[in-house]
Amino acid sequence: MTDGHVDRHTVALDLDGVTDKAGLMDRCAAALGLPDWFGRNWDALADSLADPAVWPGEAADTGLLLVVRGWQAYALARPEEWRTAREVFAEAEERTPELSVLVEPVAP
Description:
With 108 residues, this protein is an alpha/beta fold.
């Protein structure tokens, strides 16, 4: 594994149109190619993000960069859930140095 994000396997998590937790979990499962047994709850998401064995492609070898985009509508519709999602992303990053989550900034 190299330092930085350049060589990491990049996955885009597009949340455009997502306005609830179920939608977020569905998009996470699809973007990350999570197994059918993925529990679609906060703990299951944290565990999946922190487990290279379920990451897509070469990510287990190179690391994973998850780029979250289109999140603004979800954050407005469900601010508490969005706050929890951000906490889950941060917790998974802390547990797993090979994982980075980048939440794209709001465009000016």
